[in-house]
């Protein structure tokens, strides 16, 4: 199970990093979404994995529970990352509508030039 | 003493509180403004005088409030002799300057601003001299740099004012940075940041191997502030300020801060060879150089500025000598220099004010035209020259006496000869100030007809010259103050006797020689001036400008290299740097053995994992098809929710699945206006490079996660598990952490979410007012539009689902404290229920049935959460302490009421409001783009018989 979680975090991170290095705003936003998943799962996993040990106190006592703190932190992180994504999406949308292009690199320099050649 | 010590806080706070007044009172007129500036100063002075008797008896008044004890930072103040001397000077001269400035500033100058800056500066200076904590002292130190910047640049329309202010800030500010480093070293040597501790640890500090670096760094701070060579150049340029500022900053306060610091640190740092050679030599050089330049300055204020540089050099030199007698002389000269130099600056200001020029070459003969000013200026100048029966004479004699028996690198003559030469130059420029401004024939070409100013303007300098003479004739007047201050500087119990006549000492001969030589030099001033003008000299400002320009160019080059507008590049740099740091950390730290067994993997989980991996890879590879990528993102989110549910995190699963839904809806809405495909523009090399970076990053993170997952860790959660029910009244520990243990965090987070919602709303409005609006209107979106926008099935199903969804939301909310659920999830669930209505029945139809504005909902949510927190104050408990009780109403089972639930209600409302406001904003854009609006829930009424196939257009 540990391997499953760790590799999932790794795959999500790799996908996220690859996408945020793209040249258009939409894939970058998708990449950030993937990175959010990765970070959330990573943080959650820092409480170590446990099955059938939900941090809901049992009436009968004697039960063991998983670490609730990372869960609480991740819960708000999920909601906040939604808010952040929403703001980014609107900024990206606004930039596209104002500038007529959703390229994310402006100005001079290697990658921007390359973008300029290949773009519309 | 405890009863009075808290008054120190009042003194420290008064100028800052008072700084609010002038800006307000200026509406009531200039007199009211000046009066209200004087009040906090006068009040602080009165309090200081109340504390003075005990300080004079040798006690130290101390007051302390812990601020950040972990950092050794506390708001602690103390008042000893040295502090009393400086605080008295700052406040006393502050009062006089307020009076003087009232008459000096013209009607066009914004006086409220001026007095506000002045009080801010005064507060910062006061803070320096009464701080008992060097970190606090550093804060005030930087504040003086900032507030003096405002004062020097007060005449914003003058380029010299702006440049002078910038130069002063650059020099003193960077000196302050060096001093921060020095003070931190000092604090770590002494093991405390409290001055009183540091001053007692002098021996340990001097013996430390870090002594020299600390000394040099602190001295850079002091030298830049006190304009010591080679940092002296900023002071003359700061003369572009209005004269009251110059008089205040350069006689009593700002430039004396460096001297104060050296005096303050004397017991800790002085007494070594390094101290002597650095401080005394710098002081000596500055004294002679400043005096020499002053002699050849034609601008009255420039002359005074360089003479100030010279006198600061004198003070520095005296402190550098490191003997107790020299410290007494230094303290005495601080008082004397203050009295005559403030009076001289004010005199120069009066001359400038009345004749409209400060150029000595255009002045002369003012003796008869401005008799009062002449008397004041002459007394002050003669004191500066060091003539007997003026106070300047007394401290200069003491200085020469000390210089006469100081050896420098084995030479008996170097210091006495140079000190006498400095004194001689000082006599010459002082005489020149009198002779070339007031004496000589009356001219007929003054730019303005000079006459004495009103009483209010000469009252302040007149009072100062009365002190000049009083101390000069009866030095015993200043003896007590000098005694306590000098004792505080040296840390020894001193009993100096200030006398006019010391007998025929070497100092007397040096003094006589200096006065005679100075007079001769003045007579030869004309030819010397021509030689001086012809001699090549380095211009400090040019050098300074060149340095600044070089730095700016270099900074720009670095910025353009790393910050060239290509976000991809920044992100690549960031990711690579993170990988490198992570790798370094991984390689550096030791790794214990694994302590956990691997958990088994059931087949279902394996299937979920495969889905997640395949979906992620597909998103990355085929992200050009944006719609498809969104669907794949949805799959990933669902897999993760399932994973949370399996791994004992039901709350996370609920949250993830509902957030997933709204995120996808949001992205879909946005995609409507964005290109549906990304062009394939990355060259293959770039893709390979990015893939390599991405895979490395992913492998690193996976490795890290795998490593820690197999090892146990100490956790603080046992406390939460143990107290959740007892203290928080809930069995869902995650929820109790959110609303109780870490309620303050949650409070912050819902505020952030609310702000995000409002930001989106505001951005949307800005967008619809800008050029984007045209583009939106002119784009043809008809290709994206479904013919059947509001399908019958959807409308009916969502209508039926609505009450159920709301019920589920309420249920999730209510059970949240004890079972998985809570405000966050409930808010999201209800938001989804509402969104379904928007999607199925159309925007306008739903909007018309909405009763509460989403903004209001956010506001109420935050307020309810906040009030719940504040409520616990009423019961004298900390913010957000929760309380709960069990209620039993007959027909229903016993249930629990907790204040935490009220807090959760706030969370619920904020989440709901923010999410709805975000999606609402996107829909607004859609409507703006020409989306037609339905009035009915469906585009056509199925109950109505329609002949036309196209149905009823709306």
Describe the structure.
The complex is a heterodimer of chains A (120) and B (954). Chain A has 4 helices and no strands. Chain A is an all-alpha fold. Chain A starts with a helix and ends with a helix. In chain A, helix 2 (25-45) packs antiparallel against helix 3. Chain B is mostly helical and 954 residues long. Among the domains of chain B are: 340-523, no CATH class; 730-942, no CATH class. A two-stranded antiparallel ribbon of chain B has the order 1-2. Chain B has a two-stranded antiparallel ribbon with strand order 3-4. The longest helix of chain B is centred in the N-terminal third of the chain and has 32 residues, at 159-190. The relative contact order of chain B is 0.05.
Summarize the structure.
The complex is a heterodimer of chains A (120) and B (954). Chain A is built from 4 helices and no strands.
Throw out a few tags for this protein.
heterodimer, A: 120 residues, mainly alpha, Helix Hairpins, 4 helices, disordered C terminus, B: 954 residues, two-stranded antiparallel ribbon, 41 helices, 4 strands, 71% helix
């Amino acid at each position: 199970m540990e391997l499953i979680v760790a590799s999932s975090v790794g795959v999500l991170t790799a996908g996220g990093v690859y996408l945020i290095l793209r040249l258009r705003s939409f894939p970058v936003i998708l990449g950030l979404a993937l990175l959010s998943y990765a970070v959330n799962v990573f943080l959650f996993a820092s409480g170590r994995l446990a099955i059938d040990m939900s941090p809901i106190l049992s009436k009968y006592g004697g039960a063991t529970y998983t670490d609730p703190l990372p869960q609480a932190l991740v819960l708000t992180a999920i909601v906040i990352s939604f808010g952040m994504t929403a703001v980014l999406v609107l900024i990206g949308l606004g930039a596209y509508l104002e500038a007529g292009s959703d390229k994310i690199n402006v100005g001079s320099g290697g990658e921007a030039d390359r973008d300029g050649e290949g773009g519309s | 003493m405890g009863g009075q010590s808290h008054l120190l806080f009042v003194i420290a706070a008064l100028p800052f509180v008072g700084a609010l007044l002038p800006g307000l009172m200026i509406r009531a007129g200039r007199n009211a403004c000046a009066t209200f500036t004087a009040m906090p100063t006068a009040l602080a002075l009165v309090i200081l005088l109340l504390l003075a008797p005990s300080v004079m008896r040798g006690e130290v008044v101390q007051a302390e409030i812990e601020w950040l004890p972990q950092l050794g930072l506390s708001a602690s103040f103390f008042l000893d002799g040295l502090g009393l001397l400086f605080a008295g000077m700052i406040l006393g001269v502050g009062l006089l300057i307020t009076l003087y400035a009232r008459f000096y500033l013209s009607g066009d100058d914004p006086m409220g601003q001026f007095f506000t800056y002045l009080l801010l500066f005064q507060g910062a200076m006061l803070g320096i001299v009464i701080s008992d904590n060097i970190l606090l002292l550093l804060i005030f130190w930087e504040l003086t740099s900032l507030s003096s910047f405002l004062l020097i640049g007060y005449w914003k329309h003058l380029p010299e004012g702006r440049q002078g202010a910038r130069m002063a800030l650059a020099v003193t500010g960077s000196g302050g940075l060096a001093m921060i480093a020095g003070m931190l070293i000092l604090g770590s040597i002494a093991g405390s940041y409290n001055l009183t501790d540091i001053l007692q640890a002098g021996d340990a500090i001097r013996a430390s191997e870090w002594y020299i670096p600390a000394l040099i760094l602190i001295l850079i701070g002091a030298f830049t502030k006190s304009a010591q060579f080679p940092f002296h150049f900023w002071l003359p340029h700061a003369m572009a300020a209005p004269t009251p500022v110059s008089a205040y900053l350069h006689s009593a306060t700002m430039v004396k801060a460096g001297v104060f610091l050296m005096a303050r640190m004397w017991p800790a740092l002085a007494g070594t060879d390094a101290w002597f050679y650095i401080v005394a030599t710098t002081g000596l050089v500055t004294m002679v150089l400043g005096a020499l330049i002053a002699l050849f300055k034609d601008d009255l204020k420039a002359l005074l500025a360089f003479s100030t540089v010279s006198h600061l050099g004198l003070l520095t030199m005296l402190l550098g000598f490191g003997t107790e007698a020299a410290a007494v002389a230094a303290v005495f000269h601080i008082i004397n220099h203050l009295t005559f130099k403030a009076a001289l600056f004010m005199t120069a200001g009066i001359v400038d004010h009345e004749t409209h020029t400060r150029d000595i070459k255009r002045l002369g003969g003012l003796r008869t035209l401005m008799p009062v000013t002449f008397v004041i200026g002459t007394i002050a100048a003669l004191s500066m020259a060091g003539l007997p029966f003026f106070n300047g004479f007394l401290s200069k004699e003491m200085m020469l006496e000390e210089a006469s028996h100081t050896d420098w690198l084995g030479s008996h003559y170097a210091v006495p000869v140079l000190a006498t030469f400095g004194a001689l130059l000082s006599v010459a420029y002082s005489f020149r100030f009198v002779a070339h401004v007031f004496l000589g024939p009356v001219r007929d070409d003054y730019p303005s007809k000079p006459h004495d100013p009103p009483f209010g303007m000469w009252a302040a300098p007149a009072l100062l010259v009365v002190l000049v003479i009083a101390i000069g004739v009866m030095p015993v007047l200043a003896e007590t103050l000098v005694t306590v201050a000098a004792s505080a500087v040296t840390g020894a119990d001193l009993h100096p006797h200030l006398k006019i006549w010391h007998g025929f000492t070497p100092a007397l001969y040096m003094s006589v020689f200096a006065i005679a030589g100075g007079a001769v030099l003045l007579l030869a001033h004309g030819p010397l001036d021509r030689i001086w003008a012809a001699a090549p000299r380095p211009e400090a400002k040019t050098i300074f400008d060149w340095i600044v320009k070089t730095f700016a160019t270099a900074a720009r080059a670095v910025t353009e290299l790393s910050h060239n507008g290509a976000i991809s590049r920044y992100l690549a740099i960031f990711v690579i740097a993170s990988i490198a740091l992570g790798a370094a950390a991984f390689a550096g730290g030791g790794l214990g053995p694994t302590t956990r067994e691997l958990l088994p993997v059931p087949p279902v989980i394996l299937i979920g994992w495969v889905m997640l991996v395949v979906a992620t890879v597909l998103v990355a590879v085929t992200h050009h098809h944006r719609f498809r990528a969104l669907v794949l993102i949805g799959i990933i989110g669902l897999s993760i929710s399932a994973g949370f549910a399996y791994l004992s995190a039901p709350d996370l699963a609920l949250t993830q699945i509902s957030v997933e839904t709204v995120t996808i809806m949001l992205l879909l809405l946005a995609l409507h206006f964005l290109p549906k495909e990304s062009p394939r523009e990355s060259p293959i090399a770039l893709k390979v490079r990015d893939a390599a970076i991405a895979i490395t990053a992913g492998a690193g993170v996976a490795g890290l996660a795998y490593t820690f997952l197999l090892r146990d860790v100490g956790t603080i959660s046992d406390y939460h598990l143990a107290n959740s029910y007892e203290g928080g009244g809930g069995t869902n520990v995650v929820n109790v952490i959110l609303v109780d243990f870490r309620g303050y965090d949650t409070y912050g987070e819902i505020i952030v979410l609310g702000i995000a919602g409002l930001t989106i709303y505001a951005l949307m409005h800005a967008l619809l007012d800008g050029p984007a609006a045209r583009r939106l209107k002119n784009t043809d979106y008809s290709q994206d539009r479904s013919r059947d926008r509001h399908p019958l099935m959807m409308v009916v199903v969502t209508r039926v689902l609505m009450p159920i969804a709301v019920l589920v939301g309420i249920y999730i909310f209510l059970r949240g404290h004890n079972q998985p659920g809570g405000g966050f999830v409930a808010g999201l669930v209800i938001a989804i229920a509402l969104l379904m209505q928007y999607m199925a029945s159309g925007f306008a139809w739903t909007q018309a049935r909405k009763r509460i504005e989403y903004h209001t909902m956010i506001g109420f949510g935050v307020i309810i959460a906040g009030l719940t927190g504040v409520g616990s104050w009423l019961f004298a408990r900390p913010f957000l302490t929760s309380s709960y009780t069990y209620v039993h109403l007959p027909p229903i089972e016993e249930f629990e009421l907790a204040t935490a639930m009220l807090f959760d209600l706030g969370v619920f409302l904020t989440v709901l409001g923010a999410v709805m406001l975000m999606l609402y904003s996107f829909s607004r854009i859609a409507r703006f783009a020409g989306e037609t609006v339905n009035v009915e829930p469906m585009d056509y009424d199925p109950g109505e018989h329609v002949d036309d196939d196209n149905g009823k257009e709306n």
